[in-house]
Amino acid sequence: xxxxxxxxxxxxxxxxxxxxxxxxxxxxxxxxxxxxxxxxxxxxxxxxxxxxxxxxxxxxxxxxxxxxxxxxxxxxxxxxxxxxxxxxxxxxxxxxxxxxxxxxxxxxxxxxxxxxxxxxxxxxxxxxxxxxxxxxxxxxxxxxxxxxxxxxxxxxxxxxxxxxxxxxxxxxxxxxxxxxxxxxxxxxxxxxxxxxxxxxxxxxxxxxxxxxxxxxxxxxxxxxxxxxxxxxxxxxxxxxxxxxxxxxxxxxxxxxxxxxxxxxxxxxxxxxxxxxxxxxxxxxxxxxxxxxxxxxxxxxxxxxxxxxxxxxxxxxxxxxxxxxxxxxxxxxxxxxxxxxxxxxxxxxxxxxxxxxxxxxxxxxxxxxxxxxxxxxxxxxxxxxxxxxxxxxxxxxxxxxxxxxxxxxxxxxxxxxxxxxxxxxxxxxxxxxxxxxxxxxxxxxxxxxxxxxxxxxxxxxxxxxxxxxxxxxxxxxxxxxxxxxxxxxxxxxxxxxxxxxxxxxxxxxxxxxxxxxxxxxxxxxxxxxxxxxxxxxxxxxxxxxxxxxxxxxxxxxxxxxxxxxxxxxxxxxxxxxxxxxxxxxxxxxxxxxxxxxxxxxxxxxxxxxxxxxxxxxxxxxxxxxxxxxxxxxxxxxxxxxxxxxxxxxxxxxxxxxxxxxxxxxxxxxxxxxxxxxxxxxxxxxxxxxxxxxxxxxxxxxxxxxxxxxxxxxxxxxxxxxxxxxxxxxxxxxxxxxxxxxxxxxxxxxxxxxxxxxxxx
Length: 759
Known about the structure:
Layout: H1 12-39, E1 46-48, E2 54-57, H2 58-70, E3 78-79, E4 82-83, H3 90-111, H4 120-135, E5 139-140, E6 145-147, H5 150-169, H6 182-200, H7 226-252, H8 277-308, H9 324-355, H10 362-388, H11 396-399, E7 401-404, E8 407-409, H12 411-436, H13 442-457, H14 471-505, H15 510-528, H16 543-555, H17 557-574, H18 584-588, H19 590-615, H20 617-623, H21 628-656, H22 659-702, H23 704-707, H24 710-713, H25 716-749
Parallel strand pairs: 1-6
Antiparallel strand pairs: 1-2, 3-4, 5-6, 7-8
Helix pairs in contact: 1-15, 2-6, 3-4, 3-5, 3-6, 5-6, 7-16, 7-20, 8-9, 8-10, 8-21, 8-25, 9-10, 9-12, 9-14, 9-21, 10-12, 12-13, 13-14, 14-15, 14-21, 15-17, 17-19, 19-21, 19-22, 21-22, 22-25
């Protein structure tokens, strides 16, 4: 069936504009990424003392990086500010201890006694000399040799013993003997010594270190650079200019947005479908989504408890079975898995609606893909368990834990995931192919296919690094996945899904839906592609990454501001006609639209307000790795991507079940909607935001290493708020997640559900 459009085709400049944004954005980001290879802190071939005696080698440093990755220490603490938040920042912790040891060595060398025994004037003299010693760059690029002072060598040997004791005796969230092999601990110490050196040694011909003087460490004179101040100020100019341009354009053209051309000619793309066999099979994906969602929030509840009782779980020694590193890995990975599964399932559910036909063998392909995803999900979770317990030997990188936050699953499982995404893309194309030949639906269908292709293509950077790649380069490619794959092209694909759902409901014309997709793509990607660089301010790149990242990430707030209007648009769309005149599909999808309204609100709050708060370079300098980061992460990751995924789930569920069954499920989902939103709001209000502000103040007043230490995190208001947070988690899980899981399983498997009806 073809739909005759009441309006002329869209201007080709929408398509051209989107292509220009993509081309310019990726050309710019590609250059910045390539510069990461040149600007990354060098890894010396050998590190020697002032007498030329070998201290450690390049092999030791890279072996130590493998230890750091294999045991998932980035899911315990951070390195250069990126990672988890229970443990220390390993680079900052080594640096602080190194400063103390070198200071002591200087006191003995100059005055013959310990620093604490010196008079105030003598202490000031030693403290004034310390930055000069530690910030001098003694690396010789011609020979690949790094020379350490006697104090720095003493620090290395002292910290070898201290880190050995740290992992032997049991750290917060880690069982005693977490790393048993003494050679691995020695190599890890060499790696941390290099990582700390990069934070303190000035770049050649620069007055700041390889990490832009991060972390803030007053003992050695690590303070914000003039670049951080300059680009913070200029990013505000970009923000104001972007907001002004947006308000001008939207004031000039009142047809932009979901309400289209004043509501004229809104026709459904298709009548409500009789479900095809592949669509019924696709509802199995949503049952999996519900179960993975439940498992993910349960691991999240356990993680929250680790933060209030790091060495126990209500008296039970959970550390020895599931250390914090593994629990957090599962929490993050399951979040990506259930959200991605919802969108994969949503694509498979909607594609036959758009294409109008059920390709031969489509149902079998949908079932096979689900089985393949199950192998990847549970195989990778099991492999990570074996990997962090050192049970895979040299195969840890392939089948165990790769060790990079959000990209934890072993390389073998990544390959299977990429193959699964290719199969998904093939199934999507088969179902959408008939619509590609229909002039009335071709453009929106093409966008559907292109957005799906983007999810496949932009997962490929996950293969561009290895276990012995320079960490600065690893982090550059890692954020191509975290920012571009998850926050960019997943969000674009979700926009297309919403557009297809709205055309099916009869709320907008295909023309309006297509224009909204182009508009969102242009707005999202104008700031979002180059804005990826805001993650690289202090990870071994030069000022160009900060300049571009700060200015373009400020522009990301512009489309997020518009999304607050989306929430109102969704309400107006529901109320656009009198009840008797509304399209019946839209009337039955009120709850799906409610979840989309929540997306509009949380996108502005979580991604817009909280994201912009921590994106300014000067704020990020002090804040990175504090609780304000998960404050933004929870509000944006679940509030936006999670709510979008649940909107797709609720839409498919309502379209799949009988009216009789839906009458029994609707109450569960309505309760879930409020439980999820109230629970998330309580997490932010009671813990994540105020605790993050308090921790940020501690960084400014006492230095970064102190604010990440147990001395701070296990005392005072910060620790008390972690206890209060458990109440918010309970609301989220019991009132929010459980009713949704029950409703979904009943909707798929119950009487009158998707799989119990006649095909």
